[in-house]
Every structure is written in structure tokens, then in C-alpha cells.
Amino acid sequence: MEKSTTAAILLLLYFFGFCSQPGVSSFANPSDDLDFSYLKFVRNATDLPLQEEYDYIVVGGGTAGCPLATTLSANYSVLLLERGNIPSAYPNVLRANGTLANFMQEDDGKTPAQRFTSEDGVANLRGRILGGSSMINIGFYSRANGEFYQTSGIKLDMNLVNNSYEWVENTVAFRPNVTHWQSVVKDAMLEAGVRPDNGLTLDHILGSKVSATLFDDRGKRHGAVEHLNKGHPKNLRVAILATVERIIFSSKASGLSAKGIIYSDSNGRSHRALIRGKGEVILSAGAIGSPQLLLLSGVGPKSYLSSRKIPVVHPQPYVGQFMRDNPRNYITILPPFQVEASTVQVVGITSDYYIETFSGLPFSRQAFSLFPSPTIPMTINSSFGHIMVKFPGPLSYGSLELQSSYDVKVAPNVKFNYFAQEADLSHCVSAVRKIGDLLKTNSLKPYKAQDLPGVEGFNLFGPPLPVNQSDDASFETFCRDTVATFWHYHGGCLVGKVVDEDLRVMGIKALRVVDGSVFNVISPGTNPQATLMMLGRYFGVQMLEERSE
């Protein structure tokens, strides 16, 4: 009775409080300090038994894995495994002013931001910390676009979607204190025709808007890890520094089933965690980690696995395929005066592209992946404003391949084939042209070093925009020359190819994938992290309901 009453109240709140501006009323309330009460669930993997049983095992304590494990723990025992450490081991991740430091920290195999360079030659990052990439990113929080819900292939109940978003937002989504630079760029977007002004909203709406942030008004980060604070104290266990190496399978007359996982601790000892009864193994290791783990476990293209001398457990031709990364193209302004540092707080949304911005103070060490080349030293000796564009999709895709057939710690090779599809290049040209329109506005005029007309007069770090705004070829060259990552890569375990509409791995019982690897062409909205956290909560609730039936 209590559960049904609560559900009815939530439904009424949605219809009467959130319809005009969904999500706005569900912002988190700042507290005096960060809540580390989740640490009571956390154990170093070295302290865990060599074999245990749980109802559910979640591989990957990241953006989707944390809310998923927390939700399942309401009724069942859950083991959440994370290869990285706790956030407090890396204080920079907990502060807005430490964000760029995450990009500068040399990768020693333990740092929260794992570096990799795609086969396209573009520098990139993966989260390697409890809380995942939500602990190292720029903090922008905005819900998915309508097209995502319609075309993702995931079976979604929109009432549960909205309730799941609100559950997430009550913990991690904060009203931003909009900085001067963010306000200026928003004014420039409106002046350049990215209208209307939608004010503060979490919804994906055409025009310019302010959205939520993971940073509270004191600049402290509240990532997906904080969802663990809501876990059941007797049911949730979180293993850190736990590297999952293989999925354990059982083959019977009734079919192939996942039975557990093998993981190693920081001392190199091997552990087994098994599921009991109607439990499941859920992969939430991200668009790189989940397909890699399936391949290493013998689930993938038969001929490919055989060529790598990996025993084929289940032939699945699409594992590791359709890897996509949203290109980031940009200009970086070096103003004639100091600009305060800011994370992304505003966005311009059109049907073809999105515009975002952040600003920073001088840095003398290379910020890996901020600029595309991993080898050319790039430092900035003054404050800067970075205006960047992203377009939905992309249509272009590549694939992921193993570098090692047995060692999960050896990162796989991945190629995204940026701009292989002409439509992607066309979207980029339109988006970069709009940056040119912004540079012509009165709002950005004070940021010019010289009083020159049009897009000229700015002191820029990196290549300038083409002066001839009608020259498509010059803009295409600019797009190719400045392509960097938006850190929103996805694919490798697509819905309809590898998993079904309920994210179950097709042909294998008791195995699901809940992370960005299941996304097809469309990555959700301007930033996927809100939707990833929502999906973690959503599928946790759905799985509980399935068991209760």
C-alpha cells in the first residue's frame, strides 16, 4: 500500500509540477559538505574472499553502474566492481577548479582519467574511478532529446523514465551560478539566432538555455558515486581496485547462461563472484570496457575470436562494431583580459547541432584530449574561452579490436572514422559557420584583441575560422583539421544487434549491458550522462519489478 501511494504522489507531482518545466523542481539541495557515507559499502578487492555468491553482479562502478547497483540493493544482494579507486584518493575530481587537472595528470595506470588515442589519431579519455566519467567530466547535466527515446530501440516507459530522472536529479543536479563568460556566450547565441531563450530547464528544447551541473554552489562535484549513499546497508558491497577479467558461463540443455565473473585484485590474486538463483550479471563498463569484456569472454565474431585463439562461447558478429564518437570542433579565444574559469552551464540547441562553451585559466602542462593531438605539446599562457560544437549522431562509425587476447588491462584499439559520412561533414560545416556568427556579435566584440570586422580581430589559440564564410571547402578542411573528441563515444553492444530492447545480451541468459555501448546512431541529447544515470535507475527498478512478478 505504501509503495502504491508513493507512486501515486510521484505521478501527481509530475503532472502538476513538472509538465511546464520538467525536472526543474527536482534539483538537488546543496549541503555543507560532500556525502561520503557510501564508503561504508566499499572494500578494497584484496580484502574480499576468493569466492562469493550474490544475487546481482554489476561490472563497472560508473555513471550507469552506481545507480543500477544501488537500486537493485533495495531487495537483493549486489556486488559492484570498479577497477579504479575512490574519489577521495584524487581530490582534483571533487572540485570544479580541478577539472582540467584531470586532463593534465600523467597516466600511471591508476589515475582517474585513463588516456587512450584512437586509431584516427585523436586523443581521448576513459573514467577509471568509482563514479566513472561523471567524476572527470565538465559536469553538464541535461536530459535526452525526444528522438533518442523514439529511435534508441530500448523499450521505455516514459513515466518511469521521468521518475528515474527525478531520482537522479535529487542527488546530483544543481542549479548553476552562471558565470559571466557563460552569460556572454549565451547572449551571443541568442544574438546569432539560436532562439528562443528557454531560461533554466533540464529539457532538450530548441533554442538557448541554462541547464544543471554536477557542481554545487561551492564548486564541489556530485557525481554518480553519490547514488551509492542510497544503497541498502546489508545488501550492497562495492569492490574497488577490482579488475574484471572474464565472464563465467554455464551451458545446459536450457541454453547458455552467465553464472558469474572472474576478477583480480591489486595484488594479482584471482577471485570468483557467482550469481545465485534468478540473479544476473550486468555489464556497465562503458563503450570501451563492455565490448572488450565480451570479446575476452568468447562472445563476439566467430572468425575473429578464433583468429585470436579465444575459445568461442557464443558467436555474436556485432560485438565491438558500430563504434561512434561525436566529433568536437572548436575555436579557443585568448581575450585581452582575464576570464574566470567556468564549466559548461549553457547550451545552444538547433536541429542540426549543439553549441557549448567553457573557460579556463592558463595551464603549463598539456591537457590530454582537450586538443586533438596526443603528441604535439599544447599549453596556454593566458585565460581562454573555448567554444565548441557537436552534432547529433554521428552517422560515421568504426570498430573496436583487442590488443591482447587474455589481458583486460591492455586497452583495445578503437577507430571511429570521423567524417567518413558526408552528412557528418555537412553538419560540422553548418555548426562551425554558426561559431562564425557568434564571433560577429556585439556580445563577443569586447573579447577581440583588435577592432577588426567580422570574425577577425580575435587572438586565437589554434587555427582561425575561414574568413570566407561561404567557402564550403575551407570549412570542411577546418572540420577535419580541428576534430577532437567530445568524450561521448558510444556503441559496441548495440540494441538490436547485441542486446534486445530490455538490454539483455541476445542468446545468453542472465546477462545484460547497461551503459553507452548499447546506444545506436543517436547519443542522448547534448550530454549523455543524465540519461546514463537515468537508465541505471530505470533498469534497476524494472529488474526489481520483474522479480516481484
Automatic annotation (TrEMBL):
Keyword terms of this UniProt record: Disulfide bond, FAD, Flavoprotein, Glycoprotein, Lyase, Signal
Needed co-factor(s): FAD
Signal peptide bounds: 1-26
Sites where the protein binds FAD: V244, W487, H488, G516, P528, Q529
Disulphide connectivity of cysteines: C428-C479
Gene3D superfamilies: 3.30.410.40, FAD/NAD(P)-binding domain
Reaction it catalyzes: (R)-mandelonitrile = benzaldehyde + hydrogen cyanide
One family name in Pfam for this protein: GMC_oxred_N
EC nos: 4.1.2.10
Glucose-methanol-choline oxidoreductase N-terminal domain: residues covered: 127-150, 286-300
Highest rank taxon of the organism: Eukaryota
Record-level Gene Ontology MF annotations: flavin adenine dinucleotide binding; mandelonitrile lyase activity; oxidoreductase activity, acting on CH-OH group of donors
Quaternary data: Monomer.
Family according to the record: Belongs to the GMC oxidoreductase family.
The protein, known as: (R)-mandelonitrile lyase
Organism: Malus domestica (Apple)
